[in-house]
Amino acid sequence: MDRETFAKLAREAEATYYRVALSILRQEQDAEDAVQNGLIKAYQKRNQLKDIACFRTWSTRIVIHECYRLRRGEQKTVPLDEALNAAAPPSGDPELYEAIRSLPPKIRITVVLYYVEGYSVAEVASILRIPQGTVKSRLSKGRGLMRTALKEDSEHEKRSLAKSLS
Questions:
Q1: What is the mean pLDDT of the chain?
Q2: Domain stops at, among 54, 84, 114
Q3: For tag attachment on the chain, is the N or C end more exposed, with fewer CB atoms within 10 Å?
Q4: Cβ atoms within 10 A of the Cβ of 113, count?
Q5: 162 lies in which domain range?
Q6: Residue/partner pairs of 105-108 with CB below 8 Å, 24 or more apart
Q7: What domain count does the chain have?
Q8: pTM of the model
């Protein structure tokens, strides 16, 4: 694969890489670092890719591995000012965004790849290197956890509204 083809394909998938990285790492700077490092590694290994049609899946897997590598090396504490300035949802429903962010990491990455990025169950299984049945069970578990979280948020809002009206 030549340099121009790689650059074109990487630009087309850039938003996917970032959202996937952010779902794993949760901090914008870390996600940006993971995407950049992942793309450097993918570029260095571009000649190992046998089928260009698999580029997006292949390169997303490299970015995910880079995220896990960065996460293993990060500190277990977050400075208070960083926690208070956590990234807001890019667009759409903030409650849904928070529900996704509250999922356990393995379930969250599966949900993001399938529902946000639009990968098929088979593609998610390939990216994460897990059986398709595991992908399906994680998606089911994620839907249940998000349903519960969204229901609790809705009930909390109703109680807050009723309290403010009385």
A1: 83
A2: 84
A3: C
A4: 27
A5: 92-166
A6: 105/24, 106/138, 107/138, 107/141, 107/142, 107/145, 108/23, 108/24, 108/142
A7: 2
A8: 0.65
